[in-house]
Amino acid sequence: MRSGNFKFTTKIFLAYGAFVLLSALAFVFFFLEPEERRLARREEETLRAVAEGLAKTVHFASSGPLWPEDLIPLAHALGIRLTLIATDGRVIGDSHYPAAAMENHRDRPEVKKALSGEVSASRRFSRTLRTEFLYLAVPLNHRGHVVGVLRVAKAQREIARALHRLRVAFAGGLGLASLLALGIGFIILRRLIRPLGELEAAARRLGRGELGARVRVPGRDELGTLAEAFNRMAEEIQGLVANLAAEKGRLAAVLSTMADGVLVFDGEQRVTLANKKAGEFLGLAANAIEGRTPAELLLPGAAKELIAKAIEEQRPVEGEFTLDFPARRHLYAVLTPVAEAGTGSPSTLLVLRDLTALRRLERVRQDFVANVSHELRTPLAAVKLMVETLLRDGMDEARRRDFLASIEAECDRLNALVNDLLTLAKLDEGKMPATVRVFSLPALVEEVIDRLFPPGEAPRRPLFYFPPGLPPAKADPDHVPQILINLLDNAVRHTPAGTAFGVEATHDPEWITVTVWDEGPGIPAAERKRIFERFYRLDKARSRAAGGTGLGLAIVKHLVEGYGGRVWVEDGQGARFRFTLPRA
After folding, report:
1. Comparing C-alpha atoms, which of 151, 164, 155 is closest to residue 125?
2. Is the four-CA dihedral 402, 407, 412, 416 of positive or negative sign?
3. In this structure, are residues 152 and 43 in contact, taking their beta carbons and an 8 Å threshold?
4. Partners of 518 in the beta sheet?
5. DSSP character for 299?
6. How many of the other CB atoms lie within 10 Å of CB of 162?
7. What φ, ψ does residue 149 adopt, rounded to 5°?
């Protein structure tokens, strides 16, 4: 395991243990070794004194040195071995072994040096006695010449035992002292490192998002200063995160309430941010868009080209494209490079504005102008043709009166068309005055029917039924007749003679529902959603011949929705137009 994988406490403790070990080794080197050398030197000096004293008791004869008979018991009593050696290395006598059986000692180092006239000592293992001996050789001088050597040998068992006891005592003392030092050091280290452990735990909690993590300040030393700095940093991070969260919340609120779609692309054309409106445009959740490319989002080729151009050229780009999925939309795109702090490549902001309603409104306006022009051109052309015919001579009075009656009818039609156009214009601009009052609906309907279908004069009169206890309505009594007139007029013109039509009403706790029904051919289901459009006719030739302008149902729709109600058509035996009015 590498040292970098150890904990800080372990590193310090290992360093402290190494220091204790080195201190023990230094103590051994500077105390035990000199003590062992001192004991060995002392043993050597003692043995030298004994050897020199015994050398004085040696006798000299013509054949060589001789020792007294009592020297051998003395050697055994002193626990030493005595060897008398001639100058040629021959052993003359030994206190422990027969001299004749011993080999020549001339090559012994201590003997060599003693024959040269010096006292010499050496330590070596004796193969004879199978133990280590200290040998000390003393030259025997007689009449100024070295005539032999007295060698004293002493086994080192006792000194070895003494050294062993000394080493054991040193090892035990040093071991105990080292363990005590390590234990005390560990306790002190734990007390010193505990604040660092608390700091580490608090840092981990802070990293997990526990922004309230704080540490105890242990004192006024360096660790206390570090703890105070950590607490200040944690407070600053908590404040910064709170500010970022607030900013993110405000940004998310702004993005979620925007009417425009917002997408942010990185340098690899992947979405890094999207708002809810962009998800609606693309038929995906906002978080499902992130990380995708334009191809994965099924954007059309025009959109891909705009995005690629903006990212590559790093300049604002604008354009329009049509999105076919999940719904057909016409979108206006504005792409702007956005430099982000701390990132190598800038992002690109794409803002999508939905122009579908605007384009639809433009088409409606164009269709409206075209329809108005067409509706005006037809009666004007007829009037012009009949006036040109009247200006010619040779026309009888009866035919002239027919032409004038036709001109009058076309003028009435033009007048009705202009009046309906003015009414719609006022409704679009909100200029139609409305005085909301409570009134009796049956009385108002009866009055409208009498006005449109005078009793005894009209060939057909509508049927009407209102349940007993019908509550009063709350609307403008000047607008409701216009709604009824348009619907009743529509029923009369589009139903064959001899069929019935009428008005009836129902109610619930909030609304009164009025139904204008007829027994005519009805309205196909595919056409029901469009009949309230301006100038929309099921059978244009027939409708125009019946004198309609194509604006009546559009006026009805505007007026009903102005009160918060709704109008729709159902098919049964004929057509059933229903509209709601608020009840008082």
Report:
1. 155
2. positive
3. no
4. 501
5. -
6. 14
7. -135, 135
d(CA 401, CA 407): 10
C-alpha span between 226 and 188 (Å, rounded): 19
Specify the fold of 433-582: Heat Shock Protein 90 (3.30.565)
**What are the start and end residues of each CATH 1.10.287.130 domain in the chain?**
360-427
DSSP 13-28: HHHHHHHHHHHHHHHI
Q: Is the Cα torsion angle 313, 318, 319, 322 positive or negative in sign?
A: positive
C-alpha–C-alpha distance, residues 166 and 34, integer Å: 12
Most distant CA atoms of the chain, gap in Å: 204
Residues recognised as catalytic: 374
What are the start and end residues of each CATH 3.30.565.10 domain in the chain? 433-582
List of the chain residues with pLDDT < 70: 1-9, 28-29, 32, 61-64, 128-129, 160, 340-345, 367-368, 370-372, 374-375, 378, 393-394, 416-417, 420-421, 423-434, 535, 537-550, 572
Q: Which CATH superfamily is domain 258-354 in?
A: PAS domain (3.30.450.20)
Q: Where in the chain is the domain with CATH 3.30.450.20?
A: 258-354
pLDDT digits (tens, 9 = 90+) for 217-243: 777 777 778 888 888 888 888 888 888
Query: Which single residue is written with the structure tokens 């009594």?
Result: 477
| 8 Å CB contact between 523 and 446 | no
- Tell me yes or no: is domain 360-427 CATH 1.10.287.130: yes
- Find tokens 């409570």 and name the residue: 438
CB 119 within 8 A of CB 48: yes
Task: Assess contact for 83 and 151: CB atoms under 8 A.
Answer: yes
Kindly state the tokens that stand for 394. 């040779």
CA dist., res. 225 & res. 203, Å (int): 16
Is the Cβ–Cβ distance between 13 and 185 less than 8 Å? yes
DSSP 98-151: -GGGSPP-TT-HHHHHHHTT--EEEEEEETTTTEEEEEEEEEEEETTEEEEEEE
Residues in CB range of 558: below 8 A, 6 or more apart: 424, 427, 428
| Beta strand spans in 324-401 (E) | 329-338, 347-354
Q: Which residue has the tokens 């029923």?
A: 491
| Single-letter code of the amino acid located at 404 | L
Read off the tokens for 480: 């409701």
Residue 582 bridge partners (DSSP): 511
